[in-house]
Every structure is written in structure tokens, then in C-alpha cells.
């Protein structure tokens, strides 16, 4: 980059896109009651509307990172934003559950293109280690805060303009980001970019699709039904085929050598399990606030704000703590705080006030903030700067797959409890089954957080400093001239 000021301007632009991505992940959560009242989707269809975005993003983000490394990260960033805007407009004009699912998947495909370019751009424009670590911490915080503010923005828009506004929001915001990106983002690519692994992309997408379909459909069809068991078996075969191909392919999507020993694989798994717990919890909490507490979309959204405060506090504290303890202490401590938060989530009842909700959000928010930046730094410090797109995509893919499965699994646990309620039982019975399901889902989420904490304690770096970033090779001349 020409100057530190221009470099930080580029970081600001990509973080703005990342904030919007997080917003899109959760903005529809508070719109679910209004959307279900107007369009009448089933609970499974509602989960697909919520999960379609994350499923397409998680399944295709590795391919998106490879495309950016090969053809230009700036190009991938702009193309992904354009696709996301078009799909958002299609969702806003949709009139059925199928159209909304398709629109959300289109938005996820666009995000899969531009998300890897956000972190890889940070690595490209900031070569000084301290500045890069600081920017990665900001990136990790923005990713979480955007998701938390989704219900706030969604609540305000839905109450005033209807659920369609949650889709229309993207169009003007993306236009502004594109204008800024054209002005300050440089082009970068891997000078030795590998060929695209198309079979690997198809295997990973199909395997994840089969897995999430089985989880979402299980409460209605039965966990031991032939269709659900067939979906799980197909998913296992496809994902096993994907892993086998990555081990044998000359140019794999996943840099397998980085996952053999060392801290990268426990860091990515910890991020995935954290995302599983947190995004599943946010989905459940917004439903609880509206369907059990009877709050409006705006009121429910406002009650999610303390979570963002906790994330910010944790994101600042985590890297500072890691300076003398390595990644292990903040990562493990953060995951245990998330587990403690789930204990509070499982205790929520119809008569619970705001204090238990605040305690859950404070504990889990600080916990997620402690983990995210240090685990992300562990991953990116082990990736050569020339292949930052693949490293970013690996980091992003694990988080998005975890998020998708968190909403699907914890939502399905809740749906299983609600399916036991008879149609004529009345509101009191619904609340009872809902809180029982919330307790069961919170138990699952808390157990996942404890499992992740055990992994982080055993496998993440124990001493300062964290692994130093790999120096970037001297790039070949660009084939296109960056804008100045």
C-alpha cells in the first residue's frame, strides 16, 4: 500500500463488508414471527430461511478463497458484494418460503466470495506484525458485533417497514461499500495460485447440505426415519470423499499440511465449536424473547445489545492476555465463560426478567470475544501471506459451518420438544414445552463449549509469543493496475 493511512482505509472498507455479513446472518431472527404470520412457513422451512445463508457461505467459502487467490481478491470482493445485493433484492420481493430460501442461499454465495477477501486483504496491506495483529483483533470483533447487531437492526426495520426491509437493507449499504472499495482497495493475488479443486468444492457443498437437511428435518420426520438416516449416511460418504480428495489432490482446497500437528487444527475447531454454540444460542434467544416473553421485534433486538458489549470487551482483552500466556489461556477461559452462559440460558422461563438474559449475554459475549481474535491469529500466522485467501477461507469455513450446524442442531432440539405439544393444549402448554426445549438445547450448547475448552487447553500455544507471521514472498508484477 502507498501509506499506513491508505492501508487502514482498506481495512475499514473490508471490515464494513464483514459487519454487513454478520448482520445478514442474524437480521432475520427477529423477523421470524412476522414472516411466519404473513407467509406461513413451517418451522423447518423457517430454519432453512435462516440457515440457507450460512449453509451456502460455509459450503462455498473455501472455493471463494481459492478464486480470490487465483483471479484477484479485489475482484472477488466486488463480485461477491454485487451478487449479495442482487440476491437481497430478490428476497425482498419474494412471496413464498422457497423464494426466500433461494435468495438467502444466493446471498450466502456472494458472501462466500467476498468474506475470504476481507481477512486476506488485512494480511496483504499490513506487513508490520504488531499492526497486523491489531487489525486481526478488530476483524474478529467486527465479525461478532455485526451478528449481534442483526437483531437490533432487524427489529427496528421489521416493526416499521415489514420483514422485507431486512433484505432491502443490503442494497444501499453494499453500494456505498463498493464505491469505497473502488477507491482504496488494492488488487492482490497468489503469485503461484493453484488450479481450482472443482470436485472438492462439489463434495464439500453436497456433504454439508445433506447433513444440515437431515438435522433440520429430523424433528418432523423422526430422528430414526429412513429419509433422515439416509441423509446422514450420504453426508458421511460425501464428506469422507472430500477428506480423501484433499489428502490425495495435488492442489487441495484445504491446506492439509497445516492441519497435521501444530496449533492450526485445534484453533479452527475451537472457532467452529464456539460459533456452533453462540449462533445457535442467538437463534433460540430471539425466539424466546418474542414467543415466550411476548416482546416486539424491536424490544427483542435491543436486549441483544449487551452481547455486543461483551464481545468488544473480550476482543480487547484476549490479545492482551495472550501476550504473556499464549493463546491457550484466553481461548480456554473464553469457552468456559460461554459454557457458564449456557447454564443461565437453560434456566430461562416465562417469568424470567431481563437480568438472567443480561447475565447470559455478558458471560458468553466476553467469552466469545476472548477466543475469536487469538484463535484467528493462530490460524493466520501459520499461513504464508501469498496464500492468505485460502487461510482466510479455512478460518471462515470452520466458523460458518459451526454457525450453520448450531442453528440447525439447537433449533432441532427445540423443535423436537415443541412437536410433543398437542394442537389444543393452549398457550401455557406451548410455553412449558418451549422452556423444556430451551433447557435441552442449552445443555447441548454448554456441553459443546466445554468440549471446545478441553481441546483449547490441551492443544493451543501455551507460551508467548504466538507463532510469528510468515514473511510474504516478493510478488510478481500485477496484471492490472490498482486504483490510486
What portion of residues is helical? over 70%
Strand proportion = under 5%
Shape: globular
Low-pLDDT runs: 464-484
User: Which secondary-structure class do the elements indicate?
Assistant: mainly alpha
Order of helices and strands: HHHHHHHHHHHHHHHHHH
Q: Helical segment tally?
A: 18
Q: What's the short version?
A:
The protein has 484 residues and is an all-alpha fold.
Description:
The chain is mostly helical and 484 residues long. The chain has two domains: 4-196 and 251-459, MFS general substrate transporter like domains (Growth Hormone, Chain: A, Up-down Bundle), CATH 1.20.1250; 197-250. Helix content is 78%, strand content 0%. The chain is built from 18 helices and no strands. The chain has helices at residues 4-26, 32-39, 43-71, 73-92, 97-125, 129-161, 165-168, 170-184, 198-221, 226-248, 256-259, 264-292, 297-302, 305-325, 328-345, 354-381, 388-418, 427-459. The relative contact order is 0.14. The model is unreliable at 464-484 (pLDDT under 50).
List keywords for this structure.
484 residues, mainly alpha, Growth Hormone, Chain: A, 2 domains, 18 helices, disordered C terminus
Set out the fold topology.
Blueprint: H1 4-26, H2 32-39, H3 43-71, H4 73-92, H5 97-125, H6 129-161, H7 165-168, H8 170-184, H9 198-221, H10 226-248, H11 256-259, H12 264-292, H13 297-302, H14 305-325, H15 328-345, H16 354-381, H17 388-418, H18 427-459
